[in-house]
Amino acid sequence: MADHGKAKRGIPPKADFNAWYPAIVEIAELVDKRYPIKGMDVWRPYGWKAMRCIDALTHSEMERTDHEEVCFPLLIPEDLLEKENRLVSLLKRAREEGVDPSELRVEEEEAGFKKEVYWVKHAGENELDVPMFLRPTSETAMYTMFPLWIRSHVDLPLKTYQIVNTFRYETKQTRSFIRVREIHFFEAHTAHVDEDCASRQIEQDLEIVGRLMHSMGLPVIISKRPVWDTFPGAWYTIAIDVIMPNGRTLQVASCHHYKDQWAKAFDITYQDDSGNTQYCHQTTYGMSERLLGAVVGMHGDDNGLIFPPPIAPIQVVLMPVAAHKSDAVMPAVNEAATALRNAGFRVKIDSRDLRPGQKYWDWEIKGVPLRLEIGPRDVENGNAFAARRTGGKEPIPLNSIVEGVRNQLDMIQSELLQRSQSHVDDCVIRLEHLDQEILDGKIYEIAFDGSDADAEKLEKTTGLAILGDAMEPFTEDQQCVITGKTTRRRQHIARMY
User: What b/e readout covers 303-318, taking b as 16+ CB neighbours within 10 angstroms?
Assistant: First the structure.
């Protein structure tokens, strides 16, 4: 993916991804990791603007698909966590035993988010009568309110979403955007009349995922997670994974089909058109700042970040050159900036009193897609000199600056998509048999139709994790790598974050 030449300004080579990634998120001024709570980075203005650009795309998709934004309280009372824990414990046991949840007695065990939540037990010097916790996700909070909002089939579908902070005590090694304890979280929660309607919502969620990932230049692997890796409260989970430069997969989004399991626990019912009481069927769709981590990892190079234009905090930086030699330079720069801003582009004029090389490096590190230089000779010729962050330079006529910039940004977006798809194509290879050598940095495509015991054997033998059933099976019969049985089930195995 990257040109592993001489790195600039202390950036480790991207080939050493474990060193490059934590360095670049700070050097590019996305976050500051010096806040005195581990896993809770401070968003710097540039990083926050990038995240808000991603949020803006998400808001747009939600409006397009008739979701309505809500905002729930951060604090949740303890009894709701216990209610969730009982449900999740029951569903977990039902899956393990292969029976319907209704056939089991409720026997509470440690499940769900109980071990990960942050507790609030005092208000000032007073101990709270009911301890509260900071939301790890919002099922319990939202589903307490859904019965108050849903009465009849005319109230359905109910399609809500929010973008909020959630909190989970992550015990593994933290990593900016990828594994944190305070999470910038998008979650959509929906309620429907029946299973089929909820399934259609999952299909729409995946269409939304496709549009968002395309905007960010992120090819993905979409898999129905195996039973043991399904969200504890879900009927099934579909996960969306990005392949990072080191060949590890990073889950950036997930969709969960709950059937009526949560509705039964929280008494979310409606009256159908015959006057009968029915339980709702529900779904959730979630994403986080892992999206930004995936963008950083996928597109960056030895010299810094490369932002896809749709989510770049600054899409175009305008650089006056030798403005002290001509009074015509700054008016030309300002006129170009105004035209571009009026056309909807995010533009920055860099008129700092610094050497041009210093400015180039600064914006290169920050991944601004397009740099436009305008000097005395450029004004005379009626051009701006365009330099793409992906490589390539050429003049753009000032009298058609908007069209010219749009074409340049389209070229950059196409190149990033091509590069990222090539990376995926290079990483994903076929595993024909268990004796095959397992290479670092590779994702393996397999035919697999075995049992849970076969899956455990596969994971132990390869040292990789099963992502689940790919959404697109093989078009022809294949031999399962474990059993030798004929199947069209297509799966991937990989090292995961």
Answer: bbbbbbbbbbbbbbbb
Residue 190, both tokens: 């929906």
* Tokens 């393990």 found at: 96
Rounded Cα–Cα distance for residues 326 and 113 (Å): 64
Give the pTM: 0.92
Read off the pLDDT of residues 158-205 as tens digits, 9 standing for 90 and up: 999 999 999 999 877 899 999 999 999 999 999 999 999 999 999 999
CATH for 314-408 is 3.40.50.800
| One-letter identity of residue 5 | G
Residue 268 and residue 282: Cα distance in Å, rounded?
Answer: 10
Tokens of 95: 């899956």
Give the pairing of strands 68-69 and 158-167. Answer: parallel
Tell me how many helices (H) and strands (E) the chain has.
12, 25
The amino acid at residue 400 is S
Q: What residue ranges of the chain are covered by domains with CATH 3.40.50.800?
A: 314-408
Cβ burial, residue 238 (10 Å; 0-12/13-18/19+): buried
Tell me which CATH code domain 31-298 carries: 3.30.930.10
User: 10 Å Cβ neighbour count for 334?
Assistant: 14
Tokens of 196: 């089929």
CA angle, 375 then 378 then 383, to 5°: 130
